Amino acid sequence: MEEKLQPSFKRELLAALPSLRAFAISLIGRHDRADDLVQDTIMKAWAKQDHFEMGTNMKAWLFTILRNELYSQMRKSGREVQDSDGLFTESMAMHPSQYGALDLQDFKKALDQLPPDQREAIILVGASGFSYEEAAEICGCAVGTIKSRVNRARQRLQELLQISGEADFGPDATSAPLTSKAFAF
């Protein structure tokens, strides 16, 4: 019995195509997009033919599928951004966050290895934003002493983190071209 249903389904589907195409053109106004919509509709109807009850109105069922497909495409296109030349995507490129998290872990370990007076000085000046004078007042020592502690702390951190220059900061060689384009003004 299923053999008889499928050819009948196929015949009714083919007979509805001209009306379906006319309906799609009336909704969209462009023949190329209307043809794509009809094709999507036919594909969905064919995949769901077991949901169609033979003897009912095939044309109404197909028009409903077409209309729902059109609305789905419209909702989807509202969330999509046309970016055929890739400019928008390039502007969104960023350094992967996992590298930053790993770098921060390494920095915390290195910071913990500093002598307490150097750690205190570099945190006050480098992280908390105090001037050398303010840090000296907080620590109860001379400004030169704070400057010396901060300098020794920076040098020790560079050694512990194996930093030899500016090239050791920021994105790696693979992601640098992406982020340099994203942040070029």
Automatic annotation (TrEMBL):
Matching InterPro entries: RNA_pol_sigma-70-like (IPR039425), RNA_pol_sigma-70_dom (IPR014284), RNA_pol_sigma70_ECF_CS (IPR000838), RNA_pol_sigma70_r2 (IPR007627), RNA_pol_sigma70_r4_t2 (IPR013249), RNA_pol_sigma_r2 (IPR013325), RNA_pol_sigma_r3/r4-like (IPR013324), WH-like_DNA-bd_sf (IPR036388)
Sequence ranges assigned to domain RNA polymerase sigma factor 70 region 4 type in this UniProt record: 105-157
GO molecular function terms listed in the Swiss-Prot or TrEMBL record: DNA binding; sigma factor activity
PROSITE patterns, per the entry: SIGMA70_ECF
Residue ranges annotated for the RNA polymerase sigma-70 region domain, each copy included: 17-79
One of the Pfam families matching this protein, by short name: Sigma70_r4_2
Keyword list, A-Z: DNA-binding, Sigma factor, Transcription, Transcription regulation
Domain of life of the organism encoding this protein: Bacteria
GO process annotations (BP): DNA-templated transcription initiation
Family listed: Belongs to the sigma-70 factor family. ECF subfamily.
Protein name, per record: RNA polymerase sigma factor
Organism annotation: Rhizobium aethiopicum
Lineage, opening ranks: Bacteria, Pseudomonadati, Pseudomonadota, Alphaproteobacteria, Hyphomicrobiales
